[in-house]
Amino acid sequence: MKKFAFILFFLPATGALASGNISDLFAALDKDGNGALSKEEASVESRLAAAFDEIDTDGDGQITRAEFDKYQSN
Ligand SMILES: [Ca+2]
């Protein structure tokens, strides 16, 4: 249920749902392609930005794909 809601709130920002692939959503937000989302990259989606510290479980200021996927599955 949470995963579904998460996809929905990303949809207006990225349109990635059309691909049906959650990994594409991460890639769409990872503008510099380094495999992690900075706060600046996350800032394009206000709800992601609001949850940034919750998703960034190790507190290094970057959301890795692992952290992103873990948040999705919570
Ligand atoms: Ca992190």
Automatic annotation (TrEMBL):
Signal sequence span per UniProt?
1-18
> Which keywords does UniProt give here?
Signal
InterPro entries given in the database record:
EF-hand-dom_pair, EF_Hand_1_Ca_BS, EF_hand_dom
Instruction: Fetch the PROSITE patterns from UniProt.
Output: EF_HAND_1 (PS00018), EF_HAND_2 (PS50222)
Identify a single GO molecular function assigned to this protein.
calcium ion binding
Q: Which residues form the EF-hand domain?
A: 43-74
The protein's name is EF-hand domain-containing protein
Q: Which organism is it from?
A: Bowmanella pacifica
